[in-house]
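Tutorial handout. Part one gives the primary structure; part two gives the three-dimensional structure as tokens.
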Amino acid sequence: MENDIAAREFLDEYLPVEVKNIIDLNTIKVQKESYIEPNLTKRLSDIVYSVNTKDNEKAFIYIAAEHQSSVDQLMVFRLWKYMLLLAEKHLKDDGKLPLIFPIVVYAGKAKYTAPRNLWALFDYPELAKELMTEDHALLDLQAMSDEDIAKKKHIALFEYVMKHVHMRDMLKLWENVFDKLPHAVIIDKEYGYFYISNLLWYIDRKLPEDKRDELSSLIIEHLPKSDGEQIMRTVADSYRDEGIQIGISQGIEQGIEQGIEQGIEQGIEQGIEQGIEQGIEQSAIKMLKQNLDLKLIASITGFSQEELLKLKHKI
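Part two.
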């Protein structure tokens, strides 16, 4: 099948007429790449041809031919993987996808009973074909008005924040959330402030550090005190975790430097411990600046209230 004459005759015989009408079989080339998974190379062999279109454009049509001597129920799945790999190759080259004609050459004794289309592998073939071949669903938040979003129930929180997530003033965004979506906030309370907690964490990563105190005050101001403190505990936990991660990174770097003289293993261990302590201390300072309750800070950081008071005097 790697011989040009054999390949040309084979394709002339088996390609659909509508395909042969647009290609020049005299330009057939065997592609050297193999798209078989390594663990199947002993059992299978694949061959891929490329041919130019008759107008000699750079677009190709590929024919993925697979020789089979036994019935393989997942053959169609593997062909799809081959085709996607071919498509990916062309995306990298010029961004255009080629036509691909998959064909299985079967020479087994038993009747060929394997599925011949991907959808047959799904529990709901017609629905799967519709979902995966029609235009994909699109949730275009920018095309929705704020008024239409506000009419929705719980999900309004998610849609509104994600629509305006690129606002420069993140604090203004959260003010708008509480002013325009009070009904959604009430529903969110029933679910343990699921959306607010997660969206707050997401937005917090984008917020400058010097604005985090204001965000904390804003959350506490617009929610019942106990709820606001619980939300702020989530924020404080993120500060603590962030501080610990920064401290660990700094500690490892410092520990490696110390390790040159003291022994690398001992130095890294000491550096990590110091880094964690520094990270937790930085988190405690941030929370003290926000005037959060000392008991709350102590429960999060592990510091005693006396230690926190001493730390507060240093700020």
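Part three, for discussion. The chain has 14 helices and four strands. The longest strand covers residues 60-68.
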